[in-house]
Every structure is written in structure tokens, then in C-alpha cells.
Amino acid sequence: MPRARRLLADLSPLRESPAFRRLWVGTTLSSVGGALTNFAVPLQVYDMTRSPFAVGAIGVAELVPILVIALPGGSLADSVDRRRLVLFCSFGATAVSAGLAAQAFAGLHSLWLLYVLVAISSAIGAVSSPARRTFIPGLLSPDRLAAGIALNRLSFQIMLTLGPALAGLITAVPALGLRGCYLIDTLSFAGSLYGVARLPVLPRPEKTAKRGLSAVAEGVRFIRRSQPLAGAFLADLNATVFGLPMALFPAINAERFAGNPRTLGLFMTAIGVGGLVSGAFSGPVGHISRQGRAMLIAVAIWGAGFAGFAIAPSLWLTLACLAIAGAADTFTVIFRGTIVQALTPDELRGRVTAADYLVGAGGGQIGSLESGALGSLTSPTVSAFAGGVATVVGAVAIGLALPAFARYRSEPRATEPAEDSPSSAVAKEA
Predict the structure, then answer these.
(1) pLDDT in tens, 60-74
(2) Which partner for 247 in 75, 278, 372, 380 could form a disulfide, CB atoms 3.0-4.6 Å apart?
(3) Quick check: is 3 in a domain?
(4) pTM of the prediction?
(5) Residue 195 and residue 349: Cα distance in Å, rounded?
(6) Is residue 91 part of a domain?
(7) Which stretches of 82-210 are DSSP H helices?
(8) What is the pLDDT of residues 223-247, one digit of tens each?
(9) Total number of domains constituting the chain
(10) Is 5 part of a structural domain of the chain?
(11) Is 392 contained in some domain?
(12) Structural domain span for residue 198
């Protein structure tokens, strides 16, 4: 029994810190609401255009603001009151969700308006994410920090599991449809606003770090000189660019399952369930020392899962392949996060973490565009299968090209899960 308990999430931060509890509950509720919008936008674009490429272009609308704003957003979070910054961003995100609901109720059918609203939402998230990540150390004691990070990961898995399934059910109700998803998302921001507004006064940085182009270049050079770090980032990019066919989900659902919105919701739910189960039993992962090789294996399993998803003849086998991919994703996140933490010196941690954020958030958007474009040129099934195979081949190629990454060893220790993953590309920063 004691060993089994070590595998379960530590809930002590929720019991001991009322502020952290309010923030966690509010963020979880808002994240589930955000999953409804993440489900609704691609489906609305596909219903309007019947084009996988148009769905993939949503990734471009999300990616450009991330690339432009993420690093300056981190600097801004170090120079202003972070609580007020996140509160301001939350109000802005609420307004964007309200705009999405308004266009759906009005029946505008405007593709460019959807892209603009998605881009604004992505820009707001690129500012709020670095600031929000600074809250936990100010709310929890050092010995509870790892448990708090793990609970944030659990919140993400809850969103990934519950959100799409709920979205599919809401969309299937004629009186609600996509409009209901947008409206509920707008209302769900009340939880996030309450959690942030009730935060105590948190300490501000004593000294604002300078972040110019030369500082960014120094971080990039450090990553490039370290094969394990470069390999971890490349392996994650390989997984998200080639093996994350989210833009193809509506088309594959329409092609193979008559476009049932409930089935489409189950696609993302299956990924979330796989990640939730593997996350709940990830304790032994901390004892693996060959983390570079383990990450490459996890990435290859992720790709194989999506390749199987593309050709699975039945719904249950389709969902099983997605669950396997979701389980591999959790392990990939843990290994990547551990390598980054172990190899990055304190004076470069902010810049390397920013690069990690860009890889996690931006890779999936590039992958949506890539899979959507290939799906338009060939077929959704061919695109998803080719992407999965390319991910497996890419994992092998990275291991051969960067042997120091494949051979990388670390001392076995407890790991702290990272806050993003390939599938977090579809998550909303509340």
C-alpha cells in the first residue's frame, strides 16, 4: 500500500495553501472551458471550408504571435506586477471568447475573423503563460513545489480528457452546437478570474534581467553546444511537427465515422486518458538513467500510435492507438523536462525554458499546418499515416546523428513534469 501511494498525486498543496487551491480549481475550470473552444474552432473552420489546409492554417494564426511575443512577454512578467498582468490577460481572453460566441450566434461564417480572434487569443496566452508560471513558488513552500507542479500537470490531463468529450456532447445538441461551446468557455473564465484576483501579494523580482538579442543568442548557442539539450528539443519538434495530426481529426472523423461530433470528441479524450493513466503510474520513470534513449523510444511510440490511428479499421482500435500516443506523450514530457532541468545552469535557465516553451507551443502549430497541407494534397489518412511513420524514422535519425543525446545518462531521481507537451499545443492558457 505505501508503494502504491507513492504513485499517486500529492494533494498536500491543495490542503495547505488556500490561494493555490483557488488558483488550481479556477484554472482547471477555465482550461476545460478552453478545451471547448479548441474543439469548436477547427470544427467550425472545417464545416465552413471542408479543407484540412484551412484547419491547419489555424496553427499559423496561433504560431506567429507565440514566436513574436513569448520572449518579450517573459521580460514583461519580470518588470511588472505579475498578478495584475495575468488578471489583465484573463479579462482580454474572456473578451476574445465572447467574440467567438458572438460570431457564432450571429452566423457570420467569416474565416478571417476566426483567424484574427485565434491570433489574439494566442498573443494573450504568450504573455500570460510566463507570468502565471511564477505564481507557484510564491504560494508553496520549497518542499511542496514539486507536488504543485505535478498537480498542474494533472489539471492539464483533466482538461485534455474531460474537455473534448464534453465538447462533443455539447456540439451534438442542436440547441447548443458550437455556439454553446464558445458561450460556456466565456463563462468558465469566472473561475480563473476569481483564482487570480484572490491571490496574495507576491514578491516582485529584485532586479529585472536584461533580455536583448545578444542574450537570446547566448541561450541558443548554449543549447546548440549541448547535444543532450539539442536532441531533446529536436526530438520534441520531430514529434509535434510530423506526428500531431490534430488538423486532420475533423476530416478523418467525417471520412470514417460520418462526422459524428461525439466521436470527434472521443479522439482527444482518448489521448487524454492515455496520458492520465501513464501519469498516474509514472513513479518508476524517475529511476531510468538512460533518459535520452528513453525519450527517443517514447517519441517513436507516439509516432507509431498516430500511424496506427490513421489505418485502424474500427473505432475502438482507433481510440486505443490514440491512448497509446497519449501515454507516450507523458513520458516524453517527463524525460525532456528532466534533461532540461539537469543540464541548464541557473544563469541561463530563463532563456532555455523560454526556448522549451516555444518548442512545445510552436511545434504543434507547425504540425497542424504541415498535416493539413499534406492532407489537402493527398488525403487525411495518408497524411496522418505518413506523419506517424516520419516521426518514428526521425527518432531513429536523431539518435544516430546525436549519439551523445542517445547515450545521455542522469542520476536516478524524482522528476518534475514539465508544463507543456506536444498535445499542449491545443491547450489554452486560462
Answers:
(1) 898 888 888 877 766
(2) 372
(3) no
(4) 0.69
(5) 28
(6) yes
(7) 82-106, 111-132, 135-139, 145-172, 177-197
(8) 888 888 899 999 999 998 888 787 8
(9) 1
(10) no
(11) yes
(12) 10-426
